[in-house]
Design brief:
Helix 7 runs antiparallel to helix 8, helix 14 crosses helix 21 and helix 22 runs parallel beside helix 24. The strands form seven sheets. The protein has an eight-stranded mixed sheet with strand order 14-24-23-16-17-18-19-15. It is built from 36 helices and 33 strands. It binds adenosine-5'-diphosphate (ADP) and magnesium ion (MG) (2 copies). The site of adenosine-5'-diphosphate has 16 residues, from strand 5, strand 7, strand 11 and strand 12.
């Protein structure tokens, strides 16, 4: 035997040979069956064929050398142990053939029960069961049905029709009313269906049944729906599945038999207790198939107290052993309990936190482990309000769930109207075809945003996510008519003031008001709930785990905030500063007119006047923000977007001018504006006159902003506060650009700071690939770098974000060129490499160079882990993502420690 094993690769493991850590090789089901076996739990004997055998088979289309012999040897051992031979006509051993990959892929690959039954052994089985013909024929018809469907692709409905037909003939809807004769007749009908679809008789040789079933499990790894599921769930395509061959035990032997599922805690809420379902006189798949009504697991106590108590003791045992929620499948055969499966159970986001907290209380895991077991995506889910959909609410349309949450309100079709109604205390939903920067005030005022165009990365989606505001985008069934203030969908028309509800998680749109539940977790972050005294186990668990994450993390977490309100909220959510304060919005609204004057200025004088008028307005904005962030650093980005974004759109302006001219009105000003817009028109505005380029071309613009920032800081400090301004220059590609801006800024700073003691840092965004590649030089002129990974991604890939997402990202995702959009999660290999180079070379040139990241990646869990590994000092993200980033920054430390020790 030993000699044989050195020649043959080992492809088959007895349950006694495996354990729970061998999931790669034995799959989840096999590894856990082995673990339970070794714990001494009653698992029917069996063996597991490895994922390696599957991979070898899929590679060549043939069973690898040695596999058949090893299966034979393990089967013989199983037969000896059971005292029966596979398919023996007089006293048959039957087995189940069960798939089981490393990751559970529910419903992807199926199981065949009762393998080994044929026209002769069905008689033997009946005798074995004490002349129970009904049971034997029921088992046989199940084999043909499952084998036909799973192994030979016979359409499952045909079997179901035949079963319904048999029940109808009996005048019943319950399969238990079918007697042995009925089931024997059903077997004949099934065999005909089988032969019709496969062109052959149902295989009678037990070993052939077994081999075909094993092969079918191997092949199911590449079944289309498995491939699609893996792609969605980002499960690697090359893992393969294991196959478990398990001696059958029978839950369909009569009322003292049955089958069920159990959870050691409630997978929905995490509450402790006994959760599960039981079905008497049934075989496995009946429980989930909904063939008959199951009873709550607690009822088993009445039906079979011995088995119930035994099950409870195993549940406690498994939970203690796995130190986690377990889900369990079991069968009772004539009063004897058998354990058929266990695994660490799936759970909701809320249950994940609650269970982790409870297990810490019970001393089963420590806080590090609790932190490891929850994640930022779950936390984000818990922060959104939800619809209480217990009534019948039918959606009228479905768009993209662009920014999660649940919002109801009166439909409005313009930003102004949104602001107006909101000011009167109304909840509104801003409905647009698509949004643009002018809708910002309306978006802030609205409870939710609904657009008929654009995807997950449209303006509406991106801005809404940044604000943590519910948004459904691209609901293309909606015909939005803004001038007439209404939209139509199907036969419905919704006018201004009609109430609608949008679900930003599912993308569904409802007419009328769906009741909403607020998020307790946000209440807690807002400081409205005292965690220690909270009745809510979720709040207590979140508090505890967040506190631990904060102790563990090395990355600081800042926020992107343009207003004092956002800054204040982010601070409550734990932000340790502002990593990105954009100044664009300070040029919008009633200030547009000043910006127009600035752009139209023909003389230095005119320009300086416009700038002088803007200065106090900007200063006042900064004063508020510094006050809100008293004592914490605030990174202010000088103006970044191309100037024409502040002017009316070309077409609209051209029409206005033409119409006014027609009427003989004085259009001198509009014409000048139109000329300016035409002059500033760019083919590729994202690659045009913007960022630092603007600062170098428009005299006085950056100087005015620098002055406003520093004067505001001095004001706050003089009033007894503290301000830590960091001035950030956008879009730098060459150190000379930064040096030029810096020289001018330093003069202003020296002049304004005076005796106040205010310290001002000057740094730059790293968002142009050239900046990353020359970071060593740029660091000479920068006290900090902030990676603008949105632009770095655009320019690194050569994508224009607004164009590409709708145009071809779907195809790239489908082809697997991206696992996920590089705008959602940083492309660590490519764009991330630029970050790594810049961080290393920047720090080499200037030790202690402060490094951060702003942009959406700062709040994305995987990206946070990456930024931790690169050694950044902080991430900055939208206020709502701050808790997510804190949590993930803590988890990143654990992950790094885990991979070191491996
Ligand atoms: P899934 O992965 O879909 O859960 P399983 O391999 O667990 O598929 O099989 C489904 C059900 O079939 C099990 O829950 C169990 O009830 C039943 N089953 C599987 N193997 C056996 C067996 N050896 N004896 C009795 N029932 C079994
Ligand atoms: Mg199962
Ligand atoms: Mg940028």
């Amino acid at each position: 035997m030993a000699a044989q094993e050195t020649v043959d690769h080992k492809y088959v493991y007895d349950f006694a040979e495996g354990n729970k850590d061998l999931k790669d090789l034995l799959g989840g089901k096999g590894a856990n069956l082995a673990e339970m076996t070794n714990l001494g739990l009653p698992v029917p004997p069996g063996f597991t064929i490895t994922t390696e055998a599957c991979k070898a088979y899929l590679g060549t289309g043939e069973e690898p050398a040695g596999l058949a012999g090893q299966i034979e040897a393990h089967l013989e051992a199983l037969e000896r142990e059971m005292g029966r031979r596979l398919g023996d006509p007089d006293d048959p051993l039957l087995v189940s053939v069960r798939s089981g990959a490393k990751f559970s892929m529910p419903g992807m690959m199926e199981t065949v029960l009762n393998v080994g039954l044929n026209d002769r052994s069905v008689i033997g089985l009946s005798a074995q069961a004490g002349r129970n013909d009904r049971f034997a024929w029921d088992s046989y018809r199940r084999l043909i049905q499952m084998f036909g469907k799973t192994v030979c692709d016979v359409p499952g409905e045909e079997f179901e029709h035949a079963l319904d037909e048999a029940k109808r003939a009996k005048g019943s809807t319950d399969d238990l009313d079918l007697d042995a004769d009925d089931l024997r007749g059903l077997v004949d009908a099934y065999k005909k269906i089988f032969a019709k679809h496969t062109g052959r008789e149902f295989p009678q040789a037990p070993r052939e049944q077994l081999d075909l079933a094993i092969r079918a499990v191997f092949e199911s790894w590449n079944a289309e729906r498995a491939v699609v599921y893996r792609r969605q769930e980002r499960i690697p395509a090359d893992l393969g599945t294991a196959v478990n061959v398990v001696a059958m035990v029978f839950g369909n032997l009569g009322p003292d038999s049955g089958t069920g599922v159990a959870f050691t805690r409630d997978p929905a809420s995490g509450a402790q207790g006994i959760y599960g379902d039981y079905l008497a006189n049934a075989q496995g798949e009946d429980v989930v198939a909904g063939i008959r009504n199951t009873v709550p697991l607690q009822e088993l106590e009445r039906i079979d107290k011995t088995s119930y108590d035994e099950l409870l003791s195993y549940m406690a045992r498994l939970e203690e052993h796995y130190r986690d929620l377990c889900d369990i499948e079991f069968t009772i055969e004539r009063g004897k309990l058998w354990m058929l499966q266990t695994r660490v159970g799936k759970r909701t986001a809320a249950a994940a936190f609650v269970i982790a907290g409870q297990l810490v209380d019970e001393g089963l895991i420590d806080l590090d482990e609790a932190l490891h077991r929850v994640n930022g995506a779950q936390l984000a889910q818990l922060m959104f309000p939800r619809f209480r959909l217990d009534h019948e609410f039918e959606p009228v349309a479905k768009g993209v769930g662009a920014s999660p949450g649940a919002a109801s309100g009166k439909a409005v079709f313009s930003s102004d109207r949104a602001v107006e109604l909101a000011a009167q205390g109304e909840s509104v939903i801003l409905v647009r075809r698509e949004t643009n920067p002018d809708d910002l005030n309306g978006m802030i005022a609205a409870n939710g945003i609904l657009t008929s165009r654009g995807g997950k990365t449209s303006h509406a989606a991106v801005v809404a996510r940044g604000m943590g505001k519910t948004c459904v985008s691209g609901a293309d069934a909606l015909d939005v008519n803004v001038p007439q203030r209404r939209f139509t969908v199907g036969e419905h028309t919704v006018g201004e003031g009609d109430v609608i509800s949008v679900d930003g998680t599912t993308g569904k749109v409802y007419l009328g008001e769906v009741p909403v539940m607020p998020s307790e977790v946000v209440q807690y972050f807002e400081g409205n709930l005292e965690p220690a005294r909270s009745e809510d186990p979720l709040v207590r668990a979140v508090h505890r785990i967040m506190t631990h994450a904060d102790q563990r993390r090395r990355l600081a977490v800042r926020t992107n905030a343009d207003t004092a309100e956002d800054a204040a909220r982010a601070r409550r959510f734990g932000a340790q500063g502002i990593g990105l304060c954009r100044t664009e919005h300070m040029f919008l609204g009633d200030r547009r007119e000043l910006v127009e004057r600035l752009i139209l200025a023909r003389t230095d004088d005119e320009r300086e006047q416009a700038l002088a008028a803007l200065l106090p307005l900007q200063r006042a904005d900064f004063v508020e923000i510094f006050r809100a962030m008293d004592g914490l650093p605030v990174t202010v980005r000088l103006i970044d977007p191309p100037l024409h974004e502040f002017l009316p759109p070309l077409e609209q302006l051209a029409v206005n001018v033409a119409v006014a001219q027609e009427r003989g009105e004085d259009v001198a000003k509009e014409e000048a504006l139109l000329a300016a817009v035409r002059r500033m028109h760019e083919e590729n505005p994202m690659l045009g006159l913007r960022g630092v380029r603007l600062g170098l071309v428009i005299p006085g613009l950056f100087a005015m902003q620098v002055r406003a920032i520093v004067e505001a800081a001095v004001t706050v400090v003089r009033d007894g506060g503290s301000a830590l301004p960091e001035i950030m220059v956008p879009l730098v590609g060459a150190v000379q650009e930064l040096e030029t801006v810096r020289a001018e800024a330093e003069k202003i700073i020296a002049e304004v700071v005076g005796e106040s003691g205010v310290e001002v840092l000057i740094g730059t965004m790293i968002e142009v690939p050239r900046a990353a590649l020359t970071a060593g030089q740029i660091a000479e002129a920068a006290e900090f770098f902030s990676f603008g990974t949105n632009d770095l991604t655009q320019m690194g890939w050569g994508f224009s974000r607004d164009d590409v997402e709708a145009a071809f990202f779907w195809r790239y995702l489908e082809l697997g060129i991206f696992g996920i959009s590089p705008f959602e999660s940083i492309d660590a290999e490519g764009v991330g490499r630029l970050v790594r180079i810049a961080a290393e070379e920047g720090r080499a040139a200037r030790p202690g160079l402060k490094l951060g990241v702003c942009g959406e990646h700062g709040g994305d869990p995987d990206s946070v882990h990456f930024f931790h590994s690169v050694g950044l000092d902080y991430v900055s993200c939208s206020p709502f993502r701050v808790p997510v980033a804190r949590l993930e920054a803590g988890r990143a430390v654990l992950e790094a420690a885990g991979s070191d020790s491996r």
